[in-house]
TrEMBL record:
Name assigned to this protein: Xanthine dehydrogenase family protein molybdopterin-binding subunit
Domain Aldehyde oxidase/xanthine dehydrogenase first molybdopterin binding: 5-46
Domain of life per record: Bacteria
InterPro entries for this protein: AldOxase/xan_DH_MoCoBD1, AldOxase/xan_DH_Mopterin-bd_sf
GO terms for MF: oxidoreductase activity
Coiled-coil segments: none
Amino acid sequence: LAVLDLPEGNAMRAPGEAPGLMALEVAMDEMAEKLDMDPVKFRIVNDTQVDPENPQRPFSQRQLVKCLEDGAKRFDWSKRKAKPASNRDGRWL
């Protein structure tokens, strides 16, 4: 067996990929809400920069935190209404 740096085990390019990833993202959002924590910050705090099998060895290329920070900045994440479902628009959203 070999330890690989791969995403969580969900079906990819097949039925189930979108629901599987959606379930994980919703769970992350719900955990962040229960902790009264920003969802982006929650994801950053829970990311790892080292190999879980060998914590002395950092990953050589790990850009998730930078991606989350850049995305939050570009989408003006800090200006959003933090409470879920507080941005209602129309009858359905």
